[in-house]
Design brief:
Largest sheet of chain B: none
Oligomer: heterodimer
Distance between the termini of chain A: 22 Å
Number of helices of chain B: 12
Structural class of chain B: mainly alpha
Helix content of chain B: over 70%
Radius of gyration of chain A: 19 Å
Number of helices of chain A: 4
Largest interface: A-B, 79 and 107 residues
Structural class of chain A: mainly alpha
Largest sheet of chain A: none
Helix content of chain A: over 70%
Number of strands of chain B: 0
Amino acid sequence: MAHDPPGNGVSPLVVIGLMWAVTYPVRWLGLRLGGTTLPPFWLAFLRFVPVSVFAALVAPEVLGSPEWPRRLLGSLVGAALMWRTRHLALGILGGFAAYWAARVAGL
Amino acid sequence: MVPLWPGMIPFAVAYAVTARGAGLGVWDTQLMSLTVFAGASQFAAAGLFASGASAVGIVLTTFLLNARHVLYGLSLAQTLPLNARQRVVAAQFLTDEAYGMSTVHGPLDPGGLTFAFLLGTELSLYSVWNASTLLGALAGQVLPDPEALGVGVIFPLAFLMLLVPLIASRTALLVAAMSGLVAWGLSRALPGGLVILIAGVGGALLGAWLTTRRGTA
């Protein structure tokens, strides 16, 4: 975890303001342009963004972690629970429990 | 609306605890929920703050993640005509969940899908999200060392839970595997924000190319 001020010296308030500035107009634009159809390629691109970004957020945090065996086990258990039950909280808690079981067992 | 709360509350609490662990104050953590109001991008930003990513990387990742919201507006506006003032208000609170609830349950409502139905859905999700953020932000203050609790693993777990239901086709599985592997490889050499951008854009391009080339989703 970071001990320096987050955001490489830029105030978090500025970062949050900019995050808002790139989020709100996109939502408004869609409502404003209602009826326009995007080309199929870009429609597909926008649909795949969550898939690629979520995977890119997960992999380095699991496989690149110094405690990767525990995190990998937790992730596999969590993903299996989520796959079967589609219950987000159960997946997170189950994965967290498996992670802790591995940690206590000295994995 | 209630069925979505059990998923939102732990996610908002986990976001807030991660944000606090990354060094953001209670007010910063809350302000992000009040303004940006986009769960996945807020959680991603919290993780990037924690990894020391640059401000530019955080903002661009937010843009990339939230660009899909343009689809929700496009889709809603087909069936729900809004005037200029209604658009300005509805846009602030438009999320995946609000879009899903409105398009699925709006037409089943006796009054049909109206601006009032959309705004009611949006505001109920907004209240729950912000109340849960506050809860998590305050809880994060009293929790002991996050590392001792193993809270760091919550971040990848939460995103994995969001990812799993999206793996509905072989193409999606391939995109996820490629993006994850590329991100893992790049993360040894490049800063966090840039890794997410390269792997995220690259993976989505791959998915779009495979889909439109074969004509299947």
